[in-house]
From TrEMBL:
It is an enzyme of class 6 (ligase). This is Glutamate--tRNA ligase. Gene3D superfamilies: HUPs (3.40.50.620). One of its GO terms (biological process) is glutamyl-tRNA aminoacylation.
């Protein structure tokens, strides 16, 4: 595998001792990550939860920074239906890695919303804030491979830095990568005096990483020295690191999520390779947009489940979810796993309008029980 520099990451890439299975490295990248053969693989230190009853697992992983809106709910339905259609477990993960924006009350509400829609979730539900020790051990594992370095740059430092000539615009220019141990000590001391913490970055091989998405096909992104742990007051672990570790832990071999995260997939696949864990099958799905074509948000009116129920009832919301996915002939969301084929999904965004919601509500009025909200 190590010599296959033109290979694309496909679904269910086998895992093994290859440091980066199937990852295509762009010409010009000269330093493949090297793993010391004496260190046990991260995946051996932290085995996945074994779920013998299921053929793999899918997941929905919301951030509890607000209530789920129609777009989030639609993605949840797709992730659940595609997992169930293929005999997979379906897990929920509360991605409260951003300690500033996350609220436990939103996590509770999000779980209730999924239950109310009829999405059955397998136990256990995991919460990222309870797993910080595992992320720390993953960071330590990468550190032992000499794949981590401290970064003292502020956002401003990075935006003002001269672009590295061999890197694409926006890539971290590598400012702190080549600090000597003495320079690092001096910077750590400066930061300590100011009660600041450094970030930690991955020593990547700065390459274009390709993979295949089940719906969107071939995709690639430049993987630079991405942040693994943030600096500042909270020292939050980075989303990309936590996602890879948690997907491995939960036995997730199929990731269905919004297409806005398509660019993250090569980064996560690259990290998975370094950690020796399985790269899941990726199925990115189209977003829901507002009337102006922008991604739906809570600012776009009454779009949370509670607000929509108040307006058209739960059955009306379920009707619009079905209609938005093209399942106009189905009577219930519970029927979706029977008929869904993720390869045949429309890749166009779905435009949410209050009129479409009202129409879905009216179409359900005949079958709605009096008094039901
Ligand atoms: Zn830096």
């Amino acid at each position: 595998m190590a010599g296959e520099r033109d290979t694309t990451i496909g679904a269910n890439t086998p895992t093994g001792t290859d440091p980066a299975p199937g990852i295509h490295t762009a010409p010009g990248a000269d330093t493949a990550p090297v793993r010391s053969s004496s260190t046990p693989l991260f995946q051996q230190q932290h085995p996945a939860v074994h779920e013998s009853n299921f053929a793999g697992a899918g997941r929905f992983a919301p951030s509890p920074s607000g209530e789920l809106h129609f777009g989030n709910l639609r993605t949840a339905v797709l992730a659940w239906a595609i997992a169930r259609a293929t005999g997979r477990a379906f897990y929920l993960r509360i991605e409260d890695i951003d300690s500033q924006r996350s609220r436990a009350t939103f996590a509770t509400r999000q779980i209730e919303d999924l239950v109310d829609l009829g999405i059955d979730v397998d136990e256990p539900i995991i919460t990222q804030s309870a797993r910080l020790a595992v992320y720390e051990s993953a960071l330590e594992y990468l550190r032992e491979q000499d794949l981590v370095y401290p970064c003292f740059c502020s956002r401003k430092d990075i935006s003002h830095a001269a672009e590295a000539p061999h890197l694409p615009p926006g890539a971290y220019p590598g400012t702190c990568r080549h600090l000597s141990p003495l320079e690092q000590q001096e910077r750590f001391a400066d930061f300590a005096a100011q009660h600041r913490k450094s970030a930690f970055r991955l020593k990547s091989d700065n390459s274009q990483v390709h993979l295949r998405d089940l719906l969107y096909g071939e995709t690639s992104a430049f993987v630079d020295d991405l942040v693994l742990r943030r600096g500042g007051a909270n020292e939050d672990f980075a989303y990309n690191l936590a996602v890879v570790i948690d997907d491995h832990y939960q036995g997730i071999d199929q990731v269905v999520r919004g297409v806005d995260l398509l660019d993250s997939a090569p980064r996560q696949a690259y990290l998975a390779g370094l950690l020796g864990v399985q790269v899941p099958q990726y199925v990115h799905v189209p977003l829901v947009v507002n009337g102006e074509g922008r991604r739906l948000s809570k600012r776009d009116g009454a779009v949370t489940l509670q607000q929509m129920r108040d307006s058209v009832g739960l059955a009306g919301v379920q009707r619009l979810l079905l209609d938005s996915l093209g399942f106009t002939e189905l009577a219930s969301l519970s029927d979706v796993p029977e008929v869904i084929d993720p390869k045949l999904l429309d890749t166009q965004s779905y435009t949410f309008t209050e009129e479409a919601l009202a129409q879905a509500g009216r179409s359900m009025q005949a079958v709605r029980c009096p008094g039901e909200r």
